[in-house]
Design brief:
Blueprint (H helix, E strand, L loop, with lengths): L5 H14 L3 H6 L10 H4 L13 H4 L11 E17 L2 E20 L7 E12 L2 E9 L6 E3 L8 E3 L4 E23 L4 E23 L12 E26 L4 E8 L2 E17 L4 E17 L2 E9 L3 E11 L4 E3 L8 H7 L3 H6 L2 E13 L4 E10 L12 E11 L4 E16 L8 E17 L1
Length: about 450
């Protein structure tokens, strides 16, 4: 039987557009950066005025001047992502684990007659794209799915759109990282300045598997005696861009300092490769499989700058710190990438830009943390709390991402140390695509463990 999937193909196009070239996904690529290194995350990302290692390249390059010696450090991480999803009255709780690289950093403190001058180089993961969603349930709502079961020249569309059992699984992988190079210089006994440049690069994967079945035998009339419909989508993304960070650190006393940092606006080019296929099965076992197409797409995104401020009280046995970051996501916009001409596809993409102004808002995220230092055994105990409000305009506060953090540092000797961090995150999310009307309510919890090794010289 020859089956034409006109409605299905249109629906697939909408789902792809919703994932890739949409304002929501454009913001997702940079929103809620997890931050570099191990110690900063243990203190609730409150490192703007407290960064005392090579990760200051991203937190605040002026804070490089705090380093007491040169160092090299490595770190890895493991994320457990749990999603408690409710769809059509059915609850599914599932989880996935993701393990990967977090940071490499090398900082060199130059000998000086007075003051401090430090240069640093590093590769840091700044955004983890790992995500997982699974749900299933009986859906009485229409998703508009229909198939042409007529003969050639005499189309006859038959719906397969409601009163079906639906299952969907979405797996997202990848991360965004930065190669950074910068320096911090003490301009005076009280003021340090810093600058760092970043080559941003990353990869993302998106795989969606959708399945709907006539579980209650609603579709029995030939030729529309459907049994089930399956569809798979795959989207691979590569990102590249550049960034520049300016920082300042003011020592108001021997134990109190404040910091400020400006991440200049960034432009990122996204290269996407997509493919899709499906399978329609009838009650008598007849099947119709199809390759629904594949291709590539290149576009650019302009991201707003970020302003960070922080303060730290640093004594021999205690470090207290707080930081806040401000980003106006309404300033995000799509652009035609360099070397490409404006055509109908890019015109449609640019037509999405007003949605950034209407659907998003400025975000002020904040965090606080502390570090207790036990001088005898060389042990440091850290803790913190962080809140990242949702960038969506009018979002409920339950969608704000909240993190409780803890960490432990241990000096093996005067040259080497180990650091371990635990980050617990929790928030809610609502999602919906063209295949699953009614949407899904998700309660998300994450457990991230990071471990790092530092060698001072």
């Amino acid at each position: 039987m020859k089956v034409q999937k006109g409605f299905a193909a249109a629906c697939i196009a909408l789902v792809f557009q919703a994932y890739s070239q949409s304002p929501v996904e454009a913001v997702r690529l940079f929103e809620n950066e997890n931050g570099p290194g191990v110690k900063g995350l243990a203190m609730g990302n409150a490192f703007t005025a407290a960064a005392d290692d090579g990760s200051a390249l991203l937190w605040n390059p002026a804070a490089l001047t705090i380093l007491k010696s040169s160092e090299i450090a490595f770190a890895g991480s493991h994320l457990l992502f749990r999603n408690d999803a409710v769809f059509a009255g059915t609850r599914d709780l599932d989880d996935r684990g993701f393990t990967g690289f977090n940071a490499f950093q090398l900082a060199f403190k130059f000998p000086t007659l007075r003051g401090s001058f430090v240069m640093a180089l590093g590769r840091h993961q700044i955004k983890d794209y790992s995500d997982y969603l699974y749900f299933n349930g009986f859906n009485p709502l229409s998703n508009g799915l229909a198939f042409d079961l007529g003969t050639e020249g005499a189309p006859a569309f038959h719906l397969f759109d409601r009163d079906v059992h639906q299952t969907e699984q979405v797996l997202q992988t990848g991360s965004l990282g930065a190669w950074s190079f910068g320096a911090g210089l003490a301009m005076s006994p009280h003021l340090s300045m810093g600058i760092s440049g970043h080559i941003l690069s990353g990869r993302g994967g998106y795989d969606l598997d959708f399945h709907q079945q006539d579980a209650r035998q609603v579709y029995q009339e030939v030729p529309a005696d459907y049994d089930r419909y399956e569809m798979h989508q795959s989207l691979k993304s590569r990102m590249i861009g550049f960034g520049l960070t300016l920082g300042a650190l003011l020592h108001l006393s021997d134990q109190f300092r404040i910091g400020a940092c400006l991440d200049l606006p960034r432009k990122v080019q996204v290269n996407e490769t997509y493919s899709s296929s499906d399978l329609l099965v009838f009650d008598n076992g007849d099947e119709s499989a199809a390759d629904l197409g594949s291709g590539e797409w290149v576009y650019a995104i302009h991201y707003p700058g970020k302003v960070s401020v922080g303060a730290a009280i640093d004594t021999e046995t205690l470090l207290l710190a707080a930081s806040a970051d401000y980003v106006d996501w309404r300033e995000t916009c799509f652009e035609v990438p360099s070397g490409y001409s404006l055509d109908d596809d890019y015109s449609s993409l640019l037509a999405e830009n007003p949605s950034f102004r209407s659907d998003f808002r400025p975000v002020l995220s904040y965090g606080a943390g502390c570090e207790f230092r036990f001088s005898g055994p060389g042990v440091k105990v850290r803790g913190g709390y962080r809140v990242v409000p949702s960038p969506l305009a009018g979002a409920d506060r339950s969608m704000d991402r909240k993190y409780i953090t803890a960490g432990l540092g241990y000096d093996l000797d005067r040259y080497t140390s180990l650091n371990v961090t635990y980050v617990r995150g929790f928030w809610t999310r609502n999602s919906e695509d063209g295949y699953t009307p009614g949407g899904t309510t998700e309660t998300i919890e994450t457990d991230r463990v990071l471990a790092g090794f530092t060698l001072r010289f």
